[in-house]
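**Fold in tokens:**
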Amino acid sequence: MRGVSKGTQRVSPQRRHLTTLLTRVALTAAIVLTVDGVAVGLAPRAALASTPTESGAPAATADAIPASSSVEPQAASGTVTAQSTVARVTTYSEASSRVAYHGTWLSASSSRYIGGRVRYAKARSASATFSFTGTKVSWIGPVGPTRGKANVYVDGKYVRSVNTYARTFVAQKALFGFSWSAQGAHTLKVIVAGTAGHPLVAIDAFKVTTLVTVASPAPTPPTTTPPAFPSTTTLRYLATPSVSRPGYLSPITDPVLGTKTTRVSNTAGVRHAYSRISAWNSDGTRILLGFAYPGRMLDGRTYADRGAFHQLSQAIWSNVDPNKLYGIVSNALYRQSASTEAITKLHTFTGYSNLTIGDYEGGISDDDRYMALIGTSSTGATHLITYDVAGGSVVADITVPSDINNAQISRKGNYVVVVNDNIGTARGQGVERYTRDLSSRINLTPYGRHGDNALDASGREIYVANNAPNVVAFNLASGAGTRLLAGTTAFEYGHVSGRNLDRPGWIYLSVFDNSATAGRPGHDQVVAVKTDGSGQVEVFAFSHHTDTAYADQPQAVPSPDGRRVLFASEWGGSGAYAYIASR
């Protein structure tokens, strides 16, 4: 469960929409974007925050120097060469001479904007056309309750409507992104739609990726020997050592555990999506840091940054194809190429809106066949759906209470596990297990807390949950529970991950509230726990996590082989980075 507080264990609306590429169509307002006259995509749904509203000062006319630029290495080849191609990202402000405005556009000032200013318009058909040369482009702007729809065009062709409405104001959001396989000249055009009651649309900046050739040293060959597992022990309290935050890609050795921790992101806020969403692809060659949009794609072995990745909404990796992801656009399921970002529609769920993969916490069975979806029908009813991806057909569809928290297909696809906000054992309460055809239901536990699907050492399907205050593995066939850790541990306030697909018999845990768990066994630790009830654990790292802000929580997730664990942490400072721990 995401965005959990100690008392309520509820999902944060902010987190649910941070990873959106093409967001739900059924939003209160939308903006239409265009690049060279071609519409290219939807803006992500706004995160929740507060900030002052815009002023009505006249628009400035001066040209602006690009606000910032950075160089992002492309994937390196194995050939030693004196030169390499890199992707240079340049930010052009709203006042750049590359932007041509038509209609009435005014200017507003705020320290929260890139460069301190934006341009905005309210009148229908007011437009802003950005001309550039590159391989990628994104439109940056604010969202809020006074914001409305726009239409997007890329190279003169309409793509779709984009929505900048949100309940509260956020100054900087990546509203739209588009990429090409080859570098070229393009235009992106934003046309104000004039939404009734909240028509405002604003331009803060445009970011452009261009390919340049630079001198570079020979690439470092990837490590081929997988790391060993940490030593097996029993869970106990250990004082977190005082260690400075590691430098980017500069591993440190923990003085207590002897394990290695490497910081793999170089920008605060760049981190993985969640503990139940695998960061690694199926063969471990890529890592998606997909908490925000666009995400960052890393080399799965060297952790080198491959550049921005414009992931689908609710993007999850395929479990069988290392170059494939799945995600949602409006009421349709898509697949996406990890190498080109190209998307292909797989199925449209006619009659549904607000379609999600398990309410942003779902997944797909190990064989890539079955998936659990949650959708809202035209009558407003909430539906739980099991879908056969390989067969392209709906297996079952039932109505469920509207306060369902999340749903997830089991590892082998035989069951669907549903987590509810309400405590109890009746339908729509606690944690429920349905058969794949949704015809049979049992209650696993009255408490709808964090958990994840996994396999035990014998390959049986289990669901492991921090069951207030114990960590329990539930057999999905029988519902019987096995306590994995004795007594009250720090993982009462923790996240659970079973994304170690190639290492059955283990589950991975991390702690999201170190204040409430001070002095408890497992405090601040990232561990693997054996699922047989023996109490054996492997301690991978201390998370060095001190606050409870959702975006700073570790939410640890293992690699498919379970030998490495990725987690987030603000490391006692400000802003979370991504880290990988291993032996």
